[in-house]
Amino acid sequence: MVLRQWILPACTVVLGAALVAASFNLFLIPRQILSGGLSGISMIIGYFTGWNIAFLYLLSNLPVIIWGLLQIGRKFILLSVISVIFTSWFMHLIPESAAAQNDILAAVTGGVLIGVGTGISLRAGGSTGGFDIIGSIVTQKRDFPLGTSLFILNGLVILALGYYKNNWDLALNSMLSIYITSKVVDMIYTKHLKVTVFIVTRHKDSLVQRLMKVHRGVTVVNIEGAYTKQQQHMLMTVTTRYELIELRNMIRAADPQAFVNIVETIGIMGRFRRG
Predict the structure, then answer these.
(1) What's the first-to-final CA gap in the chain, in angstroms?
(2) With 61 labelled, which of 13, 163, 207, 252 sits at a CA distance of 20 to 30 A?
(3) Domain range holding 256?
(4) Are residues 61 and 125 in the same domain?
């Protein structure tokens, strides 16, 4: 249980931190391309002052982490803290060296690496800090893709950079990197996508008990098999694609013979737990 709840997620978050740090030091910082968000703000300050960007990244995340602890929960924030600390550490270990000599290639590759690192960290139950935490707070209350939320928040930082430095090539390359990051995040982290699951079973009580533990509403319908004439129950619940694997495991454990129909959900009205 401890392995599943903490060790594997923590290792995944550390891997994500390594990818983000590699993106910063090998692709973005050498070309002075921004990643957006708090890391982008740290880069701007570092470019102008010469201060250590890894330290600025760590320092800028502290107030957001405290806010996230109050709004989201302990496990998410603890994993985010691990990510921020290891990202800063990896940035000290990985030398700043341009792995790509072309700004567009650097923006694309850097954006993909950050997207993968951020996506797997979010799937593990944490984040890479910064605007990831703000975006997670936003998507808890609204059905809005997290990558899109991050793109909007980060885009404001990039526009400010282009206006301040009057260097729109740099701003546009940074926007490209952020856009790619947002798309990769949405491909990996699918928590905002909903599905409706219909379960035909003879083990209603066992399944309902398991489903209620994950805080999802369940509707129970009495049905009759047209061929067998046997009385059964159909359970209907709405969940996220991210939680679908866990739901399938629950169903298999309670009733391996259950008939399950999974349908993509376009929209939801009424009460639904989004967190």
Answers:
(1) 22
(2) 163
(3) 194-265
(4) yes
Q: What DSSP character marks residue 243?
A: G
Q: How many residues does the chain have?
A: 275
Q: Helix H segments across the chain?
A: 2, 8-23, 37-49, 53-71, 74-93, 103-123, 131-141, 146-165, 168-188, 204-213, 244-254
pLDDT tens digit string along 90-104? Answer: 999 999 998 988 999
Number of structural domains, the chain?
2
- Strands of the sheet containing 231-240, edge to edge, are 219-224, 231-240, 194-201, 259-265
Predicted confidence band at 66 (pLDDT cuts at 50, 70, 90)?
confident
Calculate what percentage of the chain has a pLDDT beyond 70. Answer: 81
Q: Within this chain, do residues 207 and 224 fall inside the same structural domain, yes or no?
A: yes
CA atoms in the 13 A half-sphere facing the CB of 208: 13
Q: List, for residues 155-202, the tens digit of each pLDDT value.
A: 777 776 677 667 778 788 888 888 898 889 878 876 666 788 999 998
Residue 147: predicted pLDDT: 58
272 belongs to a structural domain: no
Residue 274 lies in a domain: no
Q: Which residue has the tokens 């737990």?
A: 273
